[in-house]
Specification:
This protein is of the alpha/beta class and 426 residues long. It has 18 helices and nine strands. The chain has a five-stranded parallel β-sheet with strand order 7-6-5-8-9, with helices on both faces. It has a four-stranded antiparallel β-sheet with strand order 1-2-3-4, with helices on both faces. α1 crosses α7 and α2 runs parallel beside α4. It is elongated, with a radius of gyration of 25 Å.
Length: 426
Protein backbone atom coordinates (compact mmCIF):
# COMPACT_ATOMS: atom_id res chain seq x y z
CA UNK A 1 0.00 0.00 0.00
CA UNK A 2 1.62 3.24 -1.16
CA UNK A 3 1.05 6.73 0.20
CA UNK A 4 0.86 8.44 -3.19
CA UNK A 5 -2.88 8.98 -3.34
CA UNK A 6 -3.82 11.23 -0.40
CA UNK A 7 -7.33 11.72 -1.87
CA UNK A 8 -8.23 8.54 -0.01
CA UNK A 9 -8.11 10.61 3.21
CA UNK A 10 -10.98 12.71 1.85
CA UNK A 11 -13.05 9.53 1.39
CA UNK A 12 -12.08 8.40 4.90
CA UNK A 13 -13.04 11.75 6.45
CA UNK A 14 -16.40 11.77 4.71
CA UNK A 15 -17.18 8.22 5.79
CA UNK A 16 -16.28 8.99 9.40
CA UNK A 17 -19.09 11.59 9.47
CA UNK A 18 -21.57 9.43 7.54
CA UNK A 19 -20.82 6.45 9.80
CA UNK A 20 -21.32 8.50 12.96
CA UNK A 21 -24.66 9.80 11.69
CA UNK A 22 -25.71 6.31 10.62
CA UNK A 23 -24.74 4.62 13.89
CA UNK A 24 -26.48 7.36 15.88
CA UNK A 25 -29.70 6.61 14.00
CA UNK A 26 -29.35 2.92 14.86
CA UNK A 27 -28.85 3.82 18.52
CA UNK A 28 -31.92 6.06 18.49
CA UNK A 29 -34.26 3.19 17.72
CA UNK A 30 -32.74 0.68 20.13
CA UNK A 31 -32.33 3.08 23.05
CA UNK A 32 -35.45 5.19 22.30
CA UNK A 33 -33.67 8.35 23.41
CA UNK A 34 -31.78 10.79 21.24
CA UNK A 35 -29.57 11.98 24.14
CA UNK A 36 -28.34 8.47 24.92
CA UNK A 37 -27.89 7.91 21.20
CA UNK A 38 -25.71 11.00 20.82
CA UNK A 39 -23.67 10.08 23.89
CA UNK A 40 -23.09 6.49 22.79
CA UNK A 41 -22.31 7.51 19.23
CA UNK A 42 -19.75 10.03 20.51
CA UNK A 43 -18.14 7.51 22.89
CA UNK A 44 -18.13 4.89 20.13
CA UNK A 45 -16.62 7.35 17.67
CA UNK A 46 -13.75 8.57 19.83
CA UNK A 47 -12.95 5.11 21.22
CA UNK A 48 -12.83 3.60 17.75
CA UNK A 49 -10.71 6.51 16.45
CA UNK A 50 -8.19 5.82 19.21
CA UNK A 51 -8.17 2.16 18.27
CA UNK A 52 -7.60 3.05 14.62
CA UNK A 53 -4.65 5.34 15.43
CA UNK A 54 -3.13 2.51 17.46
CA UNK A 55 -3.50 -0.04 14.65
CA UNK A 56 -1.48 1.59 11.88
CA UNK A 57 -1.61 -0.33 8.55
CA UNK A 58 2.07 -1.22 8.76
CA UNK A 59 1.30 -3.46 11.71
CA UNK A 60 -1.42 -5.18 9.68
CA UNK A 61 0.13 -4.79 6.25
CA UNK A 62 -0.03 -8.47 5.26
CA UNK A 63 -3.77 -8.87 5.75
CA UNK A 64 -5.00 -5.25 5.92
CA UNK A 65 -6.67 -5.30 2.44
CA UNK A 66 -8.56 -8.48 3.26
CA UNK A 67 -9.54 -7.08 6.65
CA UNK A 68 -10.99 -4.05 4.84
CA UNK A 69 -12.95 -6.30 2.50
CA UNK A 70 -14.31 -8.27 5.47
CA UNK A 71 -15.34 -5.02 7.17
CA UNK A 72 -17.05 -3.90 3.97
CA UNK A 73 -19.42 -6.86 4.14
CA UNK A 74 -19.83 -6.58 7.92
CA UNK A 75 -20.86 -2.95 7.50
CA UNK A 76 -23.49 -4.09 5.00
CA UNK A 77 -25.02 -6.33 7.68
CA UNK A 78 -24.65 -3.89 10.58
CA UNK A 79 -28.20 -2.38 10.63
CA UNK A 80 -29.91 -5.77 10.78
CA UNK A 81 -27.43 -7.46 13.11
CA UNK A 82 -27.63 -4.48 15.49
CA UNK A 83 -31.43 -4.66 15.81
CA UNK A 84 -31.63 -8.45 15.88
CA UNK A 85 -29.07 -8.69 18.70
CA UNK A 86 -31.04 -6.04 20.61
CA UNK A 87 -34.23 -8.06 20.00
CA UNK A 88 -32.55 -11.14 21.46
CA UNK A 89 -31.59 -9.22 24.60
CA UNK A 90 -35.20 -8.11 25.05
CA UNK A 91 -36.50 -11.66 24.53
CA UNK A 92 -34.09 -12.84 27.21
CA UNK A 93 -35.42 -10.02 29.44
CA UNK A 94 -31.97 -8.42 29.56
CA UNK A 95 -32.62 -4.96 28.05
CA UNK A 96 -29.96 -3.42 30.30
CA UNK A 97 -27.32 -5.26 28.26
CA UNK A 98 -28.21 -3.42 25.06
CA UNK A 99 -25.63 -0.62 25.72
CA UNK A 100 -22.97 -3.24 24.98
CA UNK A 101 -24.12 -2.95 21.38
CA UNK A 102 -22.11 0.25 21.15
CA UNK A 103 -19.14 -2.10 20.80
CA UNK A 104 -20.38 -2.95 17.31
CA UNK A 105 -19.97 0.66 16.29
CA UNK A 106 -16.65 0.97 18.07
CA UNK A 107 -14.92 -2.02 16.50
CA UNK A 108 -16.60 -2.20 13.10
CA UNK A 109 -16.81 1.38 11.85
CA UNK A 110 -14.24 4.08 12.55
CA UNK A 111 -10.93 2.16 13.07
CA UNK A 112 -10.73 1.33 9.36
CA UNK A 113 -10.64 5.01 8.41
CA UNK A 114 -8.50 6.35 11.25
CA UNK A 115 -5.67 3.89 10.50
CA UNK A 116 -5.09 5.72 7.23
CA UNK A 117 -4.15 9.08 8.76
CA UNK A 118 -1.07 7.92 10.73
CA UNK A 119 -0.02 5.83 7.73
CA UNK A 120 0.03 8.83 5.39
CA UNK A 121 1.68 11.05 8.01
CA UNK A 122 4.41 8.49 8.65
CA UNK A 123 4.98 7.89 4.94
CA UNK A 124 5.29 11.61 4.24
CA UNK A 125 7.76 12.06 7.08
CA UNK A 126 9.82 9.12 5.79
CA UNK A 127 9.91 10.72 2.32
CA UNK A 128 11.09 14.03 3.74
CA UNK A 129 13.58 12.30 6.04
CA UNK A 130 12.48 14.28 9.08
CA UNK A 131 9.59 14.64 11.50
CA UNK A 132 7.68 17.91 11.07
CA UNK A 133 4.23 19.19 11.76
CA UNK A 134 3.66 19.87 8.07
CA UNK A 135 2.80 16.24 7.31
CA UNK A 136 0.19 16.13 10.07
CA UNK A 137 -1.28 19.47 8.95
CA UNK A 138 -1.57 18.45 5.31
CA UNK A 139 -2.95 14.96 5.89
CA UNK A 140 -5.32 15.98 8.66
CA UNK A 141 -6.48 18.89 6.50
CA UNK A 142 -7.47 16.46 3.74
CA UNK A 143 -9.39 14.33 6.24
CA UNK A 144 -11.16 17.44 7.56
CA UNK A 145 -12.15 18.38 4.00
CA UNK A 146 -13.76 14.97 3.67
CA UNK A 147 -15.52 15.44 7.02
CA UNK A 148 -16.94 18.79 5.86
CA UNK A 149 -18.16 17.12 2.66
CA UNK A 150 -19.84 14.49 4.84
CA UNK A 151 -21.61 17.16 6.90
CA UNK A 152 -22.85 18.82 3.69
CA UNK A 153 -24.11 15.43 2.46
CA UNK A 154 -26.02 14.85 5.72
CA UNK A 155 -27.61 18.32 5.62
CA UNK A 156 -28.65 17.99 1.95
CA UNK A 157 -29.12 14.38 0.88
CA UNK A 158 -30.04 13.53 4.49
CA UNK A 159 -33.27 15.47 4.08
CA UNK A 160 -34.42 12.81 1.62
CA UNK A 161 -33.62 10.01 4.06
CA UNK A 162 -30.83 7.74 5.19
CA UNK A 163 -30.71 5.66 1.99
CA UNK A 164 -28.75 8.06 -0.30
CA UNK A 165 -26.24 8.59 2.49
CA UNK A 166 -25.68 4.86 2.85
CA UNK A 167 -25.17 4.40 -0.89
CA UNK A 168 -22.66 7.27 -0.82
CA UNK A 169 -20.97 5.68 2.19
CA UNK A 170 -20.42 2.36 0.44
CA UNK A 171 -19.30 3.99 -2.80
CA UNK A 172 -16.63 5.82 -0.79
CA UNK A 173 -15.78 2.52 0.87
CA UNK A 174 -15.36 0.99 -2.61
CA UNK A 175 -12.77 3.63 -3.54
CA UNK A 176 -10.89 2.94 -0.31
CA UNK A 177 -10.89 -0.79 -1.14
CA UNK A 178 -9.45 -0.05 -4.57
CA UNK A 179 -6.69 1.92 -2.88
CA UNK A 180 -5.74 -0.66 -0.22
CA UNK A 181 -5.76 -3.50 -2.79
CA UNK A 182 -3.81 -1.39 -5.24
CA UNK A 183 -6.14 -2.45 -8.04
CA UNK A 184 -9.28 -1.09 -9.66
CA UNK A 185 -10.56 -4.63 -10.26
CA UNK A 186 -12.07 -4.73 -6.79
CA UNK A 187 -14.45 -1.96 -7.92
CA UNK A 188 -16.18 -4.47 -10.22
CA UNK A 189 -17.40 -6.16 -7.03
CA UNK A 190 -17.71 -3.26 -4.59
CA UNK A 191 -19.60 -0.71 -6.71
CA UNK A 192 -22.41 -3.08 -7.87
CA UNK A 193 -22.80 -4.28 -4.26
CA UNK A 194 -23.03 -0.65 -3.06
CA UNK A 195 -25.73 0.18 -5.61
CA UNK A 196 -27.68 -3.03 -4.95
CA UNK A 197 -27.60 -2.16 -1.27
CA UNK A 198 -29.91 0.71 -2.08
CA UNK A 199 -32.57 -1.75 -3.28
CA UNK A 200 -32.33 -4.23 -0.42
CA UNK A 201 -31.69 -1.97 2.55
CA UNK A 202 -35.23 -0.71 3.20
CA UNK A 203 -37.13 -4.05 3.17
CA UNK A 204 -34.48 -5.78 5.28
CA UNK A 205 -34.20 -2.86 7.70
CA UNK A 206 -37.98 -2.79 8.02
CA UNK A 207 -38.11 -6.52 8.85
CA UNK A 208 -35.39 -6.13 11.51
CA UNK A 209 -37.13 -3.07 13.03
CA UNK A 210 -40.46 -4.89 13.20
CA UNK A 211 -38.81 -7.83 14.96
CA UNK A 212 -37.17 -5.44 17.42
CA UNK A 213 -40.47 -3.72 18.26
CA UNK A 214 -42.19 -7.08 18.73
CA UNK A 215 -39.55 -8.24 21.19
CA UNK A 216 -39.35 -4.90 23.04
CA UNK A 217 -43.11 -4.52 23.47
CA UNK A 218 -43.61 -8.28 24.00
CA UNK A 219 -46.27 -8.32 21.28
CA UNK A 220 -45.54 -10.75 18.40
CA UNK A 221 -48.59 -9.48 16.51
CA UNK A 222 -47.29 -5.92 15.99
CA UNK A 223 -46.95 -4.91 12.35
CA UNK A 224 -44.67 -2.12 11.14
CA UNK A 225 -47.10 -0.34 8.84
CA UNK A 226 -44.73 2.41 7.66
CA UNK A 227 -41.30 3.76 8.44
CA UNK A 228 -39.14 6.63 7.24
CA UNK A 229 -36.12 8.60 8.39
CA UNK A 230 -35.84 12.36 8.11
CA UNK A 231 -33.04 14.70 9.06
CA UNK A 232 -34.65 15.08 12.50
CA UNK A 233 -36.41 11.82 13.32
CA UNK A 234 -36.88 8.16 12.67
CA UNK A 235 -40.67 7.85 12.20
CA UNK A 236 -42.46 4.51 12.62
CA UNK A 237 -46.14 3.60 12.49
CA UNK A 238 -47.08 0.32 14.18
CA UNK A 239 -50.44 -1.42 13.93
CA UNK A 240 -52.05 -3.98 16.20
CA UNK A 241 -54.32 -6.78 14.90
CA UNK A 242 -57.28 -4.81 16.27
CA UNK A 243 -56.44 -2.00 13.86
CA UNK A 244 -55.10 0.40 16.50
CA UNK A 245 -52.16 2.46 15.28
CA UNK A 246 -49.18 3.76 17.21
CA UNK A 247 -46.86 6.59 16.21
CA UNK A 248 -43.25 6.34 17.33
CA UNK A 249 -40.50 8.94 16.87
CA UNK A 250 -36.98 7.65 17.44
CA UNK A 251 -38.37 4.51 19.03
CA UNK A 252 -40.55 6.37 21.55
CA UNK A 253 -44.36 6.33 21.49
CA UNK A 254 -45.94 9.67 20.59
CA UNK A 255 -49.50 8.62 19.85
CA UNK A 256 -51.90 5.80 20.68
CA UNK A 257 -55.70 5.75 20.43
CA UNK A 258 -56.18 5.45 24.20
CA UNK A 259 -54.49 7.74 26.74
CA UNK A 260 -52.56 9.82 24.18
CA UNK A 261 -55.75 10.46 22.21
CA UNK A 262 -57.33 11.66 25.47
CA UNK A 263 -54.24 13.82 25.92
CA UNK A 264 -55.01 15.60 22.64
CA UNK A 265 -58.58 16.27 23.72
CA UNK A 266 -57.44 17.80 27.00
CA UNK A 267 -54.61 19.76 25.41
CA UNK A 268 -56.41 21.27 22.41
CA UNK A 269 -60.06 20.17 22.31
CA UNK A 270 -61.33 21.32 25.71
CA UNK A 271 -59.50 24.70 25.73
CA UNK A 272 -60.84 25.54 22.26
CA UNK A 273 -64.38 24.55 23.34
CA UNK A 274 -64.09 27.00 26.22
CA UNK A 275 -63.02 29.69 23.71
CA UNK A 276 -65.39 29.25 20.73
CA UNK A 277 -64.41 31.16 17.61
CA UNK A 278 -60.81 31.45 18.75
CA UNK A 279 -57.62 31.60 16.70
CA UNK A 280 -55.49 28.56 17.65
CA UNK A 281 -51.82 27.69 17.10
CA UNK A 282 -50.59 24.16 17.81
CA UNK A 283 -46.83 23.59 18.18
CA UNK A 284 -46.01 20.07 16.95
CA UNK A 285 -48.19 17.75 14.92
CA UNK A 286 -47.77 14.06 15.70
CA UNK A 287 -50.91 12.25 14.54
CA UNK A 288 -52.66 15.62 13.88
CA UNK A 289 -55.47 14.49 16.16
CA UNK A 290 -55.11 17.70 18.19
CA UNK A 291 -55.86 19.68 15.02
CA UNK A 292 -59.20 17.92 14.66
CA UNK A 293 -60.18 18.46 18.29
CA UNK A 294 -59.30 22.17 18.16
CA UNK A 295 -60.94 22.80 14.77
CA UNK A 296 -64.42 21.78 15.96
CA UNK A 297 -64.76 24.99 18.01
CA UNK A 298 -62.03 27.30 16.71
CA UNK A 299 -62.35 29.82 13.88
CA UNK A 300 -58.89 28.97 12.55
CA UNK A 301 -56.22 26.40 13.50
CA UNK A 302 -52.55 26.67 12.53
CA UNK A 303 -49.79 24.13 13.20
CA UNK A 304 -46.03 24.66 13.18
CA UNK A 305 -43.87 21.56 12.68
CA UNK A 306 -40.15 21.38 11.94
CA UNK A 307 -40.24 17.91 10.35
CA UNK A 308 -42.27 17.80 7.16
CA UNK A 309 -41.95 14.02 6.93
CA UNK A 310 -43.87 13.54 10.20
CA UNK A 311 -46.82 15.34 8.65
CA UNK A 312 -46.43 13.50 5.35
CA UNK A 313 -46.62 10.12 7.06
CA UNK A 314 -49.35 10.77 9.63
CA UNK A 315 -51.66 12.84 7.44
CA UNK A 316 -53.10 9.76 5.74
CA UNK A 317 -52.15 6.89 8.06
CA UNK A 318 -53.93 8.49 11.04
CA UNK A 319 -56.93 9.75 9.07
CA UNK A 320 -59.35 7.92 11.37
CA UNK A 321 -58.05 10.04 14.26
CA UNK A 322 -57.29 13.42 12.64
CA UNK A 323 -60.29 13.49 10.22
CA UNK A 324 -58.46 16.04 8.09
CA UNK A 325 -60.94 15.59 5.26
CA UNK A 326 -63.52 17.36 7.46
CA UNK A 327 -61.16 20.10 8.70
CA UNK A 328 -61.47 23.20 6.50
CA UNK A 329 -59.93 25.82 8.79
CA UNK A 330 -56.40 24.43 9.24
CA UNK A 331 -53.08 25.74 7.94
CA UNK A 332 -49.62 24.17 8.30
CA UNK A 333 -46.25 25.93 8.71
CA UNK A 334 -43.06 23.90 8.24
CA UNK A 335 -40.67 25.79 10.48
CA UNK A 336 -38.82 25.73 13.77
CA UNK A 337 -41.28 26.80 16.47
CA UNK A 338 -38.96 29.39 18.04
CA UNK A 339 -38.18 30.91 14.66
CA UNK A 340 -41.85 30.97 13.67
CA UNK A 341 -43.00 32.67 16.87
CA UNK A 342 -40.13 35.14 16.68
CA UNK A 343 -40.88 36.16 13.09
CA UNK A 344 -44.68 36.10 12.81
CA UNK A 345 -46.83 39.14 13.58
CA UNK A 346 -49.96 37.06 14.20
CA UNK A 347 -51.57 36.84 17.62
CA UNK A 348 -53.47 33.81 18.89
CA UNK A 349 -56.19 33.23 21.45
CA UNK A 350 -54.86 29.76 22.24
CA UNK A 351 -51.38 28.25 21.79
CA UNK A 352 -51.13 24.52 22.54
CA UNK A 353 -47.75 22.80 22.90
CA UNK A 354 -48.37 19.31 21.50
CA UNK A 355 -44.99 17.94 22.56
CA UNK A 356 -43.60 15.43 25.02
CA UNK A 357 -42.47 16.78 28.43
CA UNK A 358 -39.12 18.60 28.68
CA UNK A 359 -37.07 15.54 29.57
CA UNK A 360 -35.25 15.24 26.23
CA UNK A 361 -32.85 17.72 24.62
CA UNK A 362 -34.83 17.80 21.36
CA UNK A 363 -37.92 19.23 23.07
CA UNK A 364 -36.44 20.86 26.17
CA UNK A 365 -35.62 24.02 24.21
CA UNK A 366 -39.37 24.55 23.79
CA UNK A 367 -39.89 24.55 27.55
CA UNK A 368 -37.49 27.36 28.40
CA UNK A 369 -38.27 30.82 29.77
CA UNK A 370 -37.15 32.33 26.46
CA UNK A 371 -39.68 30.21 24.58
CA UNK A 372 -42.50 31.01 27.03
CA UNK A 373 -41.76 34.72 26.61
CA UNK A 374 -42.08 34.30 22.84
CA UNK A 375 -45.39 32.51 23.32
CA UNK A 376 -46.68 35.26 25.61
CA UNK A 377 -45.82 37.91 23.02
CA UNK A 378 -47.89 36.08 20.41
CA UNK A 379 -50.97 35.68 22.62
CA UNK A 380 -53.89 38.11 22.58
CA UNK A 381 -54.53 40.03 25.84
CA UNK A 382 -56.85 37.25 27.05
CA UNK A 383 -54.91 34.48 25.30
CA UNK A 384 -54.19 31.08 26.86
CA UNK A 385 -51.24 28.69 26.74
CA UNK A 386 -52.13 24.98 26.97
CA UNK A 387 -49.21 22.77 27.94
CA UNK A 388 -48.37 19.37 29.44
CA UNK A 389 -45.73 19.59 32.18
CA UNK A 390 -45.04 15.87 32.37
CA UNK A 391 -46.39 14.93 35.79
CA UNK A 392 -49.43 14.75 38.04
CA UNK A 393 -49.49 18.05 39.91
CA UNK A 394 -50.95 18.99 43.25
CA UNK A 395 -50.57 22.08 45.41
CA UNK A 396 -47.31 20.83 46.94
CA UNK A 397 -45.70 20.18 43.58
CA UNK A 398 -46.67 23.62 42.31
CA UNK A 399 -44.71 25.23 45.15
CA UNK A 400 -41.52 23.21 44.75
CA UNK A 401 -38.70 25.37 43.40
CA UNK A 402 -36.85 22.27 42.22
CA UNK A 403 -39.71 21.38 39.88
CA UNK A 404 -38.16 23.39 37.05
CA UNK A 405 -40.80 23.12 34.27
CA UNK A 406 -43.57 24.40 36.54
CA UNK A 407 -41.31 27.01 38.10
CA UNK A 408 -40.40 28.37 34.66
CA UNK A 409 -44.06 28.50 33.61
CA UNK A 410 -44.94 30.29 36.87
CA UNK A 411 -42.30 32.96 36.18
CA UNK A 412 -43.91 33.88 32.86
CA UNK A 413 -47.56 32.90 33.43
CA UNK A 414 -48.40 33.58 37.11
CA UNK A 415 -52.08 32.70 36.56
CA UNK A 416 -52.82 29.11 35.59
CA UNK A 417 -55.33 26.32 35.95
CA UNK A 418 -54.09 22.77 36.57
CA UNK A 419 -56.09 19.87 35.16
CA UNK A 420 -55.15 16.35 36.25
CA UNK A 421 -56.69 13.55 34.20
CA UNK A 422 -56.44 9.87 35.05
CA UNK A 423 -57.87 8.97 31.64
CA UNK A 424 -55.17 10.88 29.83
CA UNK A 425 -52.51 9.84 32.33
CA UNK A 426 -51.57 13.44 33.11
Amino acid sequence: MEARQPWVLICAGMNLILAQYWIMREYQLVFASSEVSVLLAAVSFFASCSLGYLLAPKRLERFFPWLCLLLFFLHLLLPWVFKEVAAIFYRWELPHITPTLMGMGMFLVAPLYTTLLPFFVGAREETEGRITGEAVTRCYGLELCGALAGIVAVLTAGRVGILPLLVLYFLNFSLILAYVFGSKKILYLAIPVSLLYGFFYLPLERAASEDFYRSRDVDPSLHLLATTQSLYNRIDVLQKPSGEKLLLLNGREYFNPTDLESFNRYLAGIPSQLMPGSKVLIVGTGSLSSVYHASRSAATVESVEIDEQVVGLTKDLFREYNHLETVKNWRLHIDDAKHFLGSTEERYDLIAIDMVPPVYIQTALLFSREFYELVKQRLTPRGVLSIYTGDWLGEAEMKLDVYNPVKTIDEVFPEYLVVNSRGAGM
